[in-house]
Amino acid sequence: MSAKKKVLLLNLPGDQLYARDKYCTSVSKAVYYWPQVDFIMLSGILKNNFDISVIDSIVEKFTEEKTLKLILEQRPDIIIFLTCSASWSSDFDFIKRVKDNLRDVHLIANGGMLLFKGKLYMEKFPFLDAIIRDYTQPDIDKFLMGERNDLNNLIYRDNGNIVVTQRSKNRSFSIPIPRHELFPLKKYVFPLAKMPVYTATVASIGCPYGCSFCIPATLPYRVRDVENFIDELKFIKFLNIHEILLQDSTFGANREQGLEICRRMIEEKFNFKWICQSRIDTVDEEILTLMKEAGCHAIQFGIESGDEEVLKSMSKGITREQSIKIFKLMRKIGIRTNGFFIIGMPKDTLETIKKTIDFALELDCDVASFSLPMPHPGTRLGEAVREDGHVLSEKDLFDDVKGSSIKISSIPNDEVWALRNLAYKRFYLRPTFILRKIFQITTFHEFKTHIWSFLDIFRKVLKKRYQQS
After folding, report:
1. Contacts for 339 with CB less than 8 Å, ≥ 6 apart
2. Shortest CA distance to 274 belongs to which of 178, 167, 390, 194?
3. Please, where in the chain does CATH 3.40.50.2300 lie?
């Protein structure tokens, strides 16, 4: 019996805390960083046929030289790496160095900009062997085992040709139990986490809603089999992990599945603490109460704007009043909130941006994130920017730590940047906010996380100025 081939799941080194998971691009504004859920799912898909290892150079703070040394020591047969719009250039430069040192290694990429421009990247980088178009599907396992018939969800080379396959249209999926124990879970920090160790998983992929700026909205929406999900939670509990970051783009979008998951978590007496993302218009008192009983203690919502017309222009499908109502209900039930806001969308004006900042203060989220818009290829925002005469290239897609050379709204980029910084200052420097955060602390871990995050926001965000790309 021949030895299994070695697969390395590689989160590449970088000069920022690049979050490359779920086909999105972001840069952590503070010290927090979470397990990249694409790799967690792939560790389950590949575990039966391959010997799997993980290097997360971002959270481990490995330099390029350190990472390369570790790779050469391991000498994997296959490397699957994450990339994103904010770091793709340095990512591929590094991967070429790996290929120069390991001529026989097979290189597989996973990243949001590859979903729509994958063939171009395959042409540009001849050392790239394949691209994964869905990290919840088994096709990558079949491909690496040598199968070439009936493959989906991949772009790959075959006898010198680039083959672009379709994405699966099935509405449900299951994942073999992932290898959570392979990941450096003690290194990850999250602003809403209560426990010092947590892990990540998904109960769905994609999003059935149509926000103009959102990559998940471009993916086929599928839900995970509930029994399969519960089996993974049993393994997580066996590992003595007590907190979960549920990385669905919209937990509860399939209401029946969301309710059933909560009921099963209660029946199994998991006693997990967990965090998820959802939408203002998919939750109500019934499901929030059940989520709370099942252990959910914080929910992240995309509020985006405080102006109704800007919300409509984003195709967000929610109103200010809905957000006010749900945030009031969340406080009553006792679930913390994280609000995402976007500063500088096409319909934004100075007045609407100030209205958004005021709205964040009115909602009084437990955590707020203010980002600049990113015109991802494949999204309607990306296509609209292109139609305005811009030649949309990767250098224009940086996260809001570096800015973009593209002018998205009518306001100059440096003014948008200043308004984003103003939002952080107004939100986080309120005495009432600071006092509330102090009184919310229940563990030493939370205390450390709040202090580190608060100091890092000032160091990395408030003192940074707009950088023209």
Report:
1. 300, 301, 303, 360, 363, 365, 367, 368, 369
2. 194
3. 5-164
Determine whether domain 190-462 maps to CATH 3.20.20.70: yes
Kindly report, residue by residue over 23-70, the tens digit of the pLDDT: 988 787 667 899 999 999 999 999 999 999 999 999 999 999 999 999
Picking from 90, 81, 191, 92, the residue whose alpha carbon sits closest to that of residue 140 is 81
Residue 448: predicted pLDDT: 63
The upper half-sphere exposure of residue 427, i.e. CA atoms within 13 Å in the direction of its Cβ, equals: 30
161-164 vs 204-205, strand pairing mode: unpaired
Determine the pLDDT at residue 466. Answer: 44
Q: What is the mean pLDDT of the chain?
A: 90
Q: Could you give the residue range(s) of every CATH 3.20.20.70 domain in the chain?
A: 190-462
What's the confidence (pLDDT) of residue 464? Answer: 53
Q: Is the pLDDT of residue 386 over 90?
A: no
Q: How far is CA 191 from CA 148, 400, 421, 442, in A?
A: 43, 19, 19, 13
The CATH fold assigned to 5-164 is Rossmann fold (3.40.50)
Question: Closest Cα to residue 21, out of 238, 183, 145?
Answer: 183
Instruction: Using the CB atoms, write b or e for 113-132: b if 16+ within 10 Å.
Output: bbbbbbeebbeeeeebbbbb
Task: At 89, list the tokens.
Answer: 């250039």
Query: Is residue 369 a contact partner of residue 401, using CB atoms and an 8 Å limit?
Result: no
CA-CA distances (angstroms) from residue 337 to 348, 396, 433? 25, 31, 13
For the entire predicted model, the pTM comes to 0.91
- Other C-beta atoms within 10 Å of 383: how many? 15
Q: Each residue of 99-143: pLDDT tens digit?
A: 999 999 999 999 998 998 899 999 999 999 999 999 999 999 999
Q: What is the DSSP string of 231-258?
A: HHHHHHHHTT--EEEE--SSTTSSHHHH
Task: Give the model confidence (pLDDT) of 197-214 as tens digits.
Answer: 999 999 999 999 989 988
The span from the CA of 226 to the CA of 172, in Å, is: 10
* Torsion, Cα of 338, 274, 249, 201 (10° steps): 140
Give CA separation, 35 vs 21, 181, 355, 369, 438, in Å.
9, 12, 34, 19, 27
